[in-house]
Amino acid sequence: MNAIWIALFGTVCFVMGYRFYSKFIAERIYRLEADFQTPAHTYRDGVDYVPTNKWILWGHHFTSVAGAAPIVGPAIAIYWGWLPAILWVVLGTVFAAGVHDFGAVVLSNRHKGHSIGTLANRLIGQRAKLLFLFIILILVLMVNAVFAWVIAKLFITFPASVLSVFIQIPLAVWIGYRVYRHSGSMLLPSVIALAVMYGAVLVASEVPLLQFDLVNWFGGADAPVVGGFNGTSMAFLVWIVVLMVYVYIASTLPVWKLLQPRDYINSHQLVVGLALLYLGLLFGAPEMTAPSINGEAEISWYPLLFITIACGAISGFHGLVASGTTSKQLDKETDARMIGYGGALGEGMLAMIAIIAVGTLFASGADFTATYSSFSAAGSNGLGSFVRGAGQLAGNLGIPEHVGSTLIAVIVVSFAATTLDTAVRLMRYIIAELGNEYGMPVIARKHVATSIAVVTSGALVILPEGPNGFGSGGYLLWPLFGTSNQLLAGITLMLVSVWLKRQGRPVIFTLAPMLFLLVMTLWAMGQQVIFTWSGFGDADRNWLLFIFGSLIMVFTLWILLEASRSFRQGEATPQGQALSSDESP
């Protein structure tokens, strides 16, 4: 099938979903109020609570959630064929992700900008809150480890991308000071920053001296260095250390200094990247050489597809961003529709083009099968296949393939870095909250909590050792990331449903995707914990994933019991009755 028809189908579904379904949800279910005083105004502090223009906030939210995950997951899941992957991305985005992300923003906005973890205490109870915080902590730890691994691997594979990525940091700081100290629009400075970054891509792609090829600096992939480490493993270790230092600084700065301006630049990068890929698709009109259904797959897509594609269909991490940072910057409550639901649709567009890029990369179905010979092979080859496939699509516009691949790598790294330091910031919040909860105020201090987040994230990313040695095992964390991510999304939808019921509003539109997601994810999690990570059967035992997975399953089931009791006992607020004090305009 020609890939244009697939893209057209998905785009029409997304447009119709925003035009009609999100409007229905906004007016009839969440009931947005234009004159509601948002927490960004009520608790304005210039650090976390900052009223922000909806386009800038959309850029921050979109790029925070649209990291590497909506690329990596679909690029792996195409192992089962492009048809089930596309259907889950499109239907999941319209009926689950949009409602989830939108609902998380509204729920937090109506409760003083509190995070989802804190809201669990108010809606379900103290015990559920602590269990939920631990699940969130594990998820964010997974996000940090997986995304750091992705960035390090891309830096190693595409060293010409490093210069452009590092140039973005001072450019973003300059924009932040220019706009918030001297006023003015971010648009023109952001366009200038993009021009400088892409100029760096062109130059670095042609000048080897400007490529940070640490593998060769350490003697090459085959040359042992210290303690048996070769050039690749040493380069990986160095990049992880550099990334951890960066996220420590970035996650402790006020949001206007780096986070917002860099995310605004990245929102334009995302638009540019999507435009390049979709225009390349339009002009090239490639055929999908990957099979629609892979009949040779060694394992069934059902239910594993729903945890492999997490971001891009629905993602619990989005709820953390929506309630952890986005809701604290919401200028008007009515902006939540565009930012929450619209951000989810944008990520769906990214996931869809990721499937198409991989599906059109190979010359034949046999070449696809050779690369995607097993699920583990899909895990190790998926990201690289996307970058090469995206470079091939960009090549249809006359861009040299090596330059196109470097440009795509820069875009992916920029998104992943945005998500990484946002996740570390969220992890700091959670650690501080747990410190206060258990009477350890030292842990609640900003730099202590950040240090714990950075050290544990760095340690986890280098712990798993894959089949190719140190630094190659990051993709082993992906199934645990996917399961914990989807369970968190289900729990977030559950919290929104409890709140809606107490307000006397229909809950079916949040309850239905919640039930589907929890059933599929718990089923997949059970398979992974019992048959794969435990070593029961033919697989090797993986204690790290088995322990983490078992804890998440137990905590989730416990929370569901608490929530079920709360849902049955919850009293709906009679229509017309005043809302509670923290919800009144």
UniProtKB/TrEMBL annotation:
Q: What is this protein called?
A: Carbon starvation protein A
The CstA N-terminal domain covers which part of the protein?
Answer: 2-361, 378-524
User: Where does the UniProt annotation locate this protein?
Assistant: Cell membrane
The organism that produces this protein has a lineage beginning with: Bacteria, Pseudomonadati, Pseudomonadota, Gammaproteobacteria, Oceanospirillales
Q: Which domain of life is it from?
A: Bacteria
Membrane association type? Multi-pass membrane protein
Q: Which family, according to UniProt?
A: Belongs to the peptide transporter carbon starvation (CstA) (TC 2.A.114) family.
* InterPro entries, sorted: CstA, CstA_N
Native species: Salinicola acroporae
Q: Which UniProt keywords apply?
A: Cell membrane, Membrane, Transmembrane, Transmembrane helix
Q: Does the keyword Transmembrane helix apply?
A: yes
Concerning PANTHER family, the annotation shows: INNER MEMBRANE PEPTIDE TRANSPORTER, PEPTIDE TRANSPORTER CSTA
List, alphabetically, the Pfam families matched: CstA
Q: Is Metal-binding one of the keywords?
A: no
